[in-house]
Amino acid sequence: TLALIENKDITIKQLMKLIPGPDFPTGGVIIGKDMIKEGYTKGRGSFKVRGQISIEQAKNGRERLVITSIPYQVNKSVLNERIAQLVREKKIEGIRDIRDESNREGIRESIDLRNGVEPETVKRQLYKNTQIESSFGFNTLAIVDGKPQTCNLKDFLSLFLNFREDVVIKKTKYDLKKAEDRVHVLLGLSVSVENIDKVIKIIRSSKNPEEAKNTLIKTKWKITKSAKLIKLVDSKNYK
161 and 1 in contact (C-beta within 8 Å)? Predict the structure, then answer.
């Protein structure tokens, strides 16, 4: 966004150097950059997201697979249940135990393997048969002039900047109006303090609050209704 502000002629290719791909909170690896580029240029796309699986050596000499990230919107519990189901159905063989060791530092799913099992084979089976590898589609849709419109990356950022500019201008105008109203009141109070004896005389000599208000408004001091000095007239101590 900052790059676009500084250079309105920046290209999508240049923007992609700053945003090479979606940054999912659950991690994962996007398979194929071309699909990301297509999504950024056309506003629509679909790509495969693959969780990261590493191979570790356990203390007993056996090997284990450790899942350290999963595709976005994939539920860990559902994923574990799916792996367990595949083991029961013998569609994946060689898994001895599954443990969820995730904590506040991140995702960690440990899969202990049996002796003599090739870890890479089990890893490929997991990618093929579970949501550890999933397709994720995106549609960069925005409401433009009251109508939905699919936007490329640059258009989407430009629309966001226009929106932010509109919000900031409206907020600033609102704050300015409040400040101007406050200044008007203070100026009116200043005028009335300078002419306090005359103001009191007008209020006391008026037959009713309405007459006092009108007389104050017509004075050469230019005390207007918006100055809210007429609140003096509405006081309970008017009499």
Answer: yes
User: Could you tell me how many residues make up the chain?
Assistant: 239
Residue in the block written with tokens 């406050």: 182
The C-alpha atoms of residue 65 and residue 108 are separated, in whole angstroms, by 10
> What is the percent of the chain with per-residue pLDDT over 90, rounded to a whole number?
44
Cβ atoms of residues 119 and 110 within 8 Å: no
Adjacent-strand bridge partners of 143: 148
- pLDDT (tens digit per residue) in 124-173: 999 999 999 998 888 888 888 889 999 999 999 999 999 999 999 999 99
DSSP β-ladder status, 44-50 and 63-67: unpaired
Count of beta carbons in the 10 Å neighbourhood of residue 99: 13
10 Å CB burial of residue 70 (0-12, 13-18, 19+) is buried
Query: Whose structure tokens read 């929106």?
Result: 163
How many CA atoms does the CB half-sphere of 164 hold within 13 Å? 9
Entry pTM: 0.61
What's the rounded Cα separation, in Å, for the pair 122 and 108? 17
Mean pLDDT score, 109-132: 91
Identity at 201, one-letter amino acid code: K
Residue 46: phi and psi, rounded to 5, are -150, 135
